[in-house]
Amino acid sequence: TDRGTPDPLPPAPPAGAAGPRRLLLVVAVALVDADGRVLLAQRPPGKTLAGLWEFPGGKIEPGERPEETLIRELAEELGIAVKEACLAPLTFASHAYESFHLLMPLYVCRRWEGAVQSREGQALRWVRPRDLAGFPMPPADRPLLPALVDLLGP
Ligand code: 9L3
Ligand code: MG
């Protein structure tokens, strides 16, 4: 038998078919202010999941550690400077969409430099933990709420 021949790669499934999904790595953060409120950002029109309220963050670029992604995204989207030592991992979100699997660690951050501002036109709200559940959220974000309320209190 020709043992030297490598197995061919399996054909890619057609888009939308059941089968292996792509893995999308995203990272998000709960920014907590001095009153214990948490920042939610509204996804702008034109983006996927437009209008839903999410924990700020974004895609982890190849080679980035999640902390580096957050430092970059928080500067771009909110105009604040965060030190890596101020980012504490709390839990993970994991959501299987039709065509990809989203895996998203959630960090908590209570210290940053600069004032939070909307740099990309997104609406921002500071929300008490007990009120978070009242906001329409992407499916990945909602299961994060119990861990956050356990940490911060209501
Ligand atoms: N996503 C979900 N919840 C979040 C974040 C930051 C992102 N808290 C999802 C929405 C998109 C994907 O992750 O499907 C990539 O996010 P973006 O790059 O479109 O913000
Ligand atoms: Mg983003």
Describe this structure in words.
This protein is of the alpha+beta class and 154 residues long. 14% of the residues lie in helices and 28% in strands. It is built from 2 helices and 7 strands, in the order ββββαβββα. It has helices at 66-78, 145-152; strands spanning 22-31, 38-42, 53-54, 57-59, 88-96, 100-109, 124-127. The chain has a 4-stranded mixed β-sheet, with helices on one face. A 3-stranded antiparallel β-sheet has the order 3-2-7, with no helix packed on it. A hairpin with a 3-residue loop joins β5 (88-96) and β6. The longest helix has 13 residues, at 66-78.
Kindly list the characteristics that best describe this protein.
7 strands, 154 residues, alpha+beta, globular, 4-stranded mixed β-sheet, binds magnesium ion, binds ligand 9L3, single chain, 3-stranded antiparallel β-sheet
Condensed summary:
This protein is α+β, with helices and mostly antiparallel strands. 14% of the residues lie in helices and 28% in strands. Magnesium ion (MG) binds at residues 57-58, 73.
